[in-house]
Amino acid sequence: MKRLVSGNEAIFLGAVRAGAHYFAGYPISPTSEILQQAALYAEEEPGFRFLQAEDEIAAAIATISASLAGAKSFTATSGPGFSLMQEAIGWGHVIEAPCVFVNSMRVGPSTGMPTQPAQSDLLQIKAGSAGDYYPIAFYPNSVKESFDLTVTAFNAAEQSLSPVILLTDAFLSHLFEIVDLEEIRVEAIPRSKEPLGKGTRLFTGISHDKMGNTRTSHPETYREWLGEIKDRHQQAAEKYPLYEYLPCSGSETLLIAFGITSRVLLSLKDRFSLFRPIRIFPILEKELKEMTRSYRHVLVVEGSDGQYAGWVEWAIGRRVLKVSCLGGGFKLQWIRSQIEEQLKGAGG
Amino acid sequence: MDHSYKELLKMKRFPHTWCPGCGIGAVMKNVAMVLAELGWNYQNTAVVSGIGCSGRMAGYMNFDALHTPHGRPLTSAEAIKTVRPDLHVIVLSGDGDLASIGGNHLLHTSRRNPDITVFCNDNEIYGLTGGQAGPTTPRGTKTITSPRGESYLPLHLGRLLTGQAPYFYARTSVYHLNHFKDCIREALHWKGFSFVDIISDCIELNGRRLGFKTAHQMFKWFNERFHVVEGVREYLKEDELGIARMGIEEAPKPEEKPAAIPDVSGADLKCFTLEELQSYDGTGGKPIYIVYKGMVYDLSSSRLFQGEKRMRCHVAGKDLTKDMDIAPHGEDLVLKFPLAGKLMQAG
Predict the structure, then answer these.
(1) B65 and A17: CB-CB below 8 Å?
(2) Number of domains in chain A
(3) Mean pLDDT value of segment A143-162
C-alpha cells in the first residue's frame, strides 16, 4: 500500500523488517521521531524492548549489550550524540557485537544548527573512537532507500560482526515521500552470534587472543587479531559495492555527491556526469578510480569542508575540486555558481 | 569444605593479576561461593564488570562475561536483563567505576530498578591507575593526587542509594566474612536493583601510604571503623555494616516480559467465518482476533487492546483490512502478531 512515509519512519520500519528487537536512544533533533516510534512500538509488540537512556553513552552501551544478549539492536542519534557514543563504538568493534547506529547529520560542531542538514560527520564516523577500526557506513538519498539500506546495514552488521553506521541527514530524516514499503523485498540475514548464556566467553575491550586470554603486551597477538577484523570488515563491505552512476555524454566533469546533495544535483544531470557513493566507508576505492579515470575534472559537492573530497583524493591519487555547502545551505543556484567558479579556476 | 565454587572460576588463568593482600580476591571468591550454593552457573547467569582492578573479575569468572568500558557496566547489565529476563545478571565492579565515571548510570539504572545485583569493591582509591583519590576517598586522606590530604567530602553511596524507594543497599566488608556472605545472599534474592557496597582494602597503593604494613592491619582497621548492625534498616549510619532496604511489597516488580519472540507458523490454519469471529472480542475470557487481508491474527497480547473490545477506532472480531489505510502505522505491526487462522471465503 502506498502512503506517505518520512525518512525517520522508514529507518525504524526497516529495522523492524530486519528483525530488530531492541532500541535504546536519547532525544535529539533530528532523530527523536525514531525514539518516539520505538516507544509506541514497544507498547504494541511484546517481543520488542525499548530504553530511553539517560544519555547517549548509555544508549550506545545498551544497544551493544542487547546485541550480545541476543537481540538485533539499534540506536539513532545526531552528530553531538554520536560523539558521546564513540567510546562504545570502539568497544563494539573489539567485542564483535553486530548492531546498527543511525547518525542523522546536522550542522556542527557542538550544538551548531540543530535543524539544518549537514554531511560533516564523515570523519567522525570513520575514526572517532580510539585506535584503529574499520567501520562500514551507508548513506541513502531517498525515503525508500532509507528503508532498504537499514535492512542492508543490519545484514552487514551480522556479516562484519560490528556496529554498522547508517548515515542520513536532517533533510532526509524529515523528508516525506510516497512509498510502498511492502513492495520492498530485502532479505534479512538471521543472527550470526550465539546469545549470552551459552558459554564462558569473555567479551572484553582488552587485547586478547583467540582463547579469550588478555594479552596486553604482545604485539604479535594484537596484529593477528586486528588483521582478522580488518579482513572480515573488508569482506563484508565488498558484498555491498553500492553506488549510482549517471553518465552525461560530452561532460568532462564528474560531480561526486551523496545524500541530500545528490538529490539537489540531479537537476544538473544533463550537463555533468554524476556519481553517488552509497557505501561511504570503507571508501569505494576501486569504483572511484575506474569512474574518475576518463574525466578531466572531478568535483566533490558535499555538506562539509572537504571531508569526503580528502578521501577521494586519497583513493584516486590526484587533486579534486570541491564545493562545500556549509551551514545547511544546499540551494541549487548557489551550488551551480560555485561549480562554474571552480571549473573556471581550473581552466575548464 | 565445599569446593564446588571453583567450577565457577577460570582456575587455569590463575595466578591472577591482583597484588598479594588485595581484597578483590575475597570478593570474587565469596560471590562465587554463594552463586555455587544457589546453583547459578554459565547457563543461567551473565556477569558484567567495568574497568579497573575490580573490573578484571569478569575475566576469571566462568560465565559469559562482559568487560565494559569504564563506568558503563550498569547500563550494560540492564540491557541484558531487558532482552533476556531468563538470565540472572550480576555486576562486579569498583567504587571509582560505579560512582565516579559511572555516576550518572548509577543514578538512573537504580531509578529504573532492573532486577540486577551489583557488587562494588569499595577500596576508597583508584588502584589500577596508581593510587589517585576517588569519589569515596575519606576527607584528609593523602593520595598521589591529594598530597596534602583529600579536601572534599566523600560520596556516601548509602545515602545516595537509599534516597528513593524501592531500594536495597547493603554495606559489608571483606573482614566480616559471614556478614559479607549473608549480604551477597540477600542481595541475589532481592527482586529489583540491589547494591552491595563491600569495604575492601588496597594495601599497595592506599594502605602503605596510610601507614599500614600488611593487609591484615587494614582489616583490623575496618573492624575498628565499622560495626555490624542486625536486622533490616531503613538506612545505615556511616559506621554501620548491614542491610538497608525498602519497598519489597510496594516496589513495582521489574518488568517480566516474555523472552521469546512470537512464533508465526502458517501450517494447518483453522478456518473462521466472519460471524464466528465476532465472538472473539476479548469478552468472557476469549482471545482477541482480527482479520487482516484474509488472515486471522491473535491480538490478545496487544496492550492497547487489553480488556477492551476496541482499540481507538479498531474493533475486535472484525475485518480490519481497510482500517490500515487510515492507520498511522504499517502492516508490519499486525503481521508481528501470532496467526490464529484464516478467513473462510464466502461461497
Answers:
(1) no
(2) 2
(3) 96
Q: Determine the structural domain holding residue A249 and report its residue range.
A: 244-345
**Residue A304 pLDDT:** 95
**Mutate which: A94, A179, A196, vs B, most B CBs within 10 A:** A196
Residue where a domain stops, chosen among A176, A206, A238: A238
Q: Which residue has the cell 553511596?
A: B157
pLDDT score at B269: 62
Same domain for A72 and A172? yes
Segment A268-308, tens digit of pLDDT: 999 999 999 999 999 999 999 999 999 999 999 999 999 99
Determine whether the interchain pair A65/B86 forms a contact, defined as Cβ–Cβ distance below 8 Å.
no
Q: Is residue A241 over pLDDT 50?
A: yes
CATH number of this structure's domain B4-246: 3.40.50.970
Check if A317 contacts B (Cβ < 8 Å).
no
List CB contacts (< 8 A) between A47 and chain B. 258, 260-262, 336
Q: Which CATH architecture has domain B270-343?
A: Roll (3.10)
Q: Under an 8 A CB cutoff, do A61 and B79 touch?
A: yes
Beta carbons of A117 and A328 less than 8 angstroms apart:
yes
**Domain coordinates of chain B in residue numbers?**
4-246, 270-343
Beta-carbon separation of B76 and A201 below 8 A? no
Residues A201 and A252 in one domain: no
What does the pLDDT look like over B179-189, one tens digit per residue? 999 999 999 99
Rounded to two decimals, the pTM is 0.85
Backbone angles phi, psi at B132, to 5 degrees: -85, 160
- Work out the minimum CA distance from A82 to partner chain B, whole angstroms: 16
Same domain for A21 and A123, yes or no, is yes
Question: Residue B342 has what pLDDT?
Answer: 76
